[in-house]
Design a protein that fits this description.
The protein has helices at residues 2-23, 25-31, 35-38, 42-59, 64-91, 96-116. It is mainly α.
Length: 122
């Protein structure tokens, strides 16, 4: 039960953030306080937005094998995102506020991904 709820929650986070990045990249840049630091952010937000939406959709797939693959891949994806956001903050590639927010969001996604991978108790 908890693993299914975590999977659906993770899918919702991914679809919401991906859609925001795809259709409103300026809003995402503003939310992460990147407007001045990173210049125009439309391209990377749109590029990662569609990736994020597709992964979220796979987490909700009716096909159990597609869903299992998405759940198994989720921890690696989110750990990579978390490490990247943290490193970007440490190297100055992202402003501190943006790095903290991106790292926190990605770390929450790691927790959801790990919960989604849990086997139900028997």
């Amino acid at each position: 039960m908890l693993s299914g709820l975590a999977r659906v929650t993770l899918a919702g986070v991914r679809i919401f953030n991906g859609t925001a990045g795809l259709v409103a990249p300026g809003m995402m840049a503003k939310r992460l306080d990147l407007e001045d630091a990173a210049g125009p952010m439309g391209y990377p937000f749109r590029m990662f937005g569609i990736r994020t939406i597709l992964i979220g959709v796979d987490l909700l797939s009716r096909d159990p094998e597609v869903r299992r693959h998405a759940v198994r891949a989720a921890p690696l994806i989110h750990v990579s995102d978390t490490v990247s956001a943290y490193a970007a903050g440490k190297t100055g590639a992202l402003p501190p506020k943006a790095a903290k927010m991106a790292t926190t969001i990605s770390a929450v996604n790691v927790a959801l991904a790990l919960l989604a991978n849990r086997r139900p108790a028997r």
